[in-house]
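Sample entry as discussed:
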Amino acid sequence: MASRVNKIKKTPATMEEAMDRFITWKKANGISEQTLLDYSTHIQLLYKRYPEARNSYDELENAVCEHLSQEGIKPATYNNRLVYLRTFFKWCCEHGVLEDNPLDGFKKRKDEGRSVTIDEEMLARLITLPNQETFAGLRDYALFLMFLDCGIRPKEAFGLMEDDFHPRAYEIRIDATKAKTRVTRTLPLSPITVDAISELISIHPEEWKGKAPIFCTNEGKPLTRHTWGDRVEMYGKKLGIHIWPYALRHAFSVVFLRGGGNAFGLQRMLGHVDMTMTKRYVRLSDNDMKEQHNTASPLNRLIQQKKRVGKIR
């Protein structure tokens, strides 16, 4: 009778080994490359700032408390640190690295999100700024159109290949492997956006075919969010405004609703799993609320509004 070897669970010897195994485990579970990078960044930042956190549980607990109580920390930053680190520590507890999770019991802070004032005239001017006589300018023009046409995430846009673009159907397809939520979705495009993307693809050198993303550098390399952020900032300075990539996604959301778009349709286009995140993009300004009220007040239908005549002299 053959001898049977029971499953042996080896505990990581160091926190570095634990992090490596944790990242490998997350990767095996289909987590996106960007999320894996975010995990690594947050974990490494903690131990870089507080190397003594490796020594004992008490020092680790003190370190995470200081890390989260940093002066001036914004709710979004606090929540990101909390979520990424707590997930890592939970894995460490399950694998015998830690006995307790130092972040158990911590709650997220309410994040109102970054306020964006949407000036449609300014957006219209922004679209006209790129020099379409250059590769970078045409690319930027096509990106501006696409971001304001369908609200795609920058990271998703930069991963699009020519096969993801369907000009005859006026749509682009975001494969699950490229989507933040790991769910495939198809986004409709306006004719002007389709024309701009088609023109951009037409000037790609033949050797780029099947290799370079649609929106790439003039050397055919993938565009990064940092490079795009610098480009957007440059255009913003020309207009005298501060603008960043995700502001375009917010702008799409608000203008989409102002134009009569449905909130649930917006949720699907943005790729949100529920309405929680969508609500952050669709807060209405005071003027928006007044316009909505003037248009949709039930009294408009229930009571016939009489014309009023003032005092006649």
